[in-house]
Q: What sequence folds into this?
């Protein structure tokens, strides 16, 4: 079974600075998908970024980018120019291509952006 | 654009009671899911459905039931509630196809006392 590990339960960063959240996963699959979801205090889960394992290029979405290291099974999220609105729980998730597309989630990292 | 709508947002249930958490989506997604989120843990899959009339168990199905009579609706039934079912419940939906994004509702915080 796939497992997803987020080793940083809590992190904080000063506004406008850069922070990196870590995620590692365990799988024997060669093709799969990785996601970062953001959960602000409103509880709404929002997709931040998505990476396909067969693509070498790291995904980017505005201030959010990933460092995908397939051999190391690592998928970290970098947030540049942190904003107060980035304060949230961040979940890393793994999806292998399957009948139902279900995901395995890490335990989450609580990020606080300080003014 | 409503997306995925869950009701209620909060509920307190007594041990042994039953209730249904409602979930509806207006995106015409075939795939729907129910997850639970416990403190300090990631989301765990309870049940899923890949289309109307088709449901199957996920990782933690015990104590729950689902039905999928229409594409839009995917209710989750709790029978004989237990304190271990105190959690935040999320409904999600996605398009068919490999690696498609899941869209989530705002969750239901359920407390069993």
A:
């Amino acid at each position: 079974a796939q497992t997803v590990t987020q080793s940083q339960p809590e992190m904080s960063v000063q506004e406008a600075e850069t922070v990196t959240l870590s995620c590692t996963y365990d799988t024997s699959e060669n093709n799969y998908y990785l996601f970062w979801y953001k959960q602000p205090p409103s509880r709404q889960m929002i997709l931040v970024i998505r990476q396909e394992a067969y693509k070498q290029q790291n995904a980017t979405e505005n201030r959010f980018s990933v460092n995908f290291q397939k051999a190391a099974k690592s998928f970290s999220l970098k947030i540049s120019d942190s904003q107060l609105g980035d304060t949230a729980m961040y979940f890393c998730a793994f999806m292998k291509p399957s009948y139902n597309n279900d995901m395995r989630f890490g335990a989450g990292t609580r990020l606080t952006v300080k003014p | 654009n409503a997306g995925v709508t869950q009701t209620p947002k909060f509920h307190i249930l007594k041990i042994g009671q039953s209730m249904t958490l409602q979930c509806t989506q207006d995106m015409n997604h075939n795939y729907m899911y129910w997850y639970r989120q416990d403190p300090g843990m990631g989301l765990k899959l309870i049940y899923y459905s890949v289309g109307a009339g088709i449901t199957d168990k996920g990782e933690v199905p015990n104590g729950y039931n689902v039905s999928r009579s229409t594409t839009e609706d995917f209710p989750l039934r709790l029978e004989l509630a237990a304190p271990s079912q105190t959690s935040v419940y999320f409904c999600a939906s996605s398009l068919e196809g490999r690696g498609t994004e899941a869209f989530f509702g705002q969750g239901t915080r359920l407390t069993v006392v």
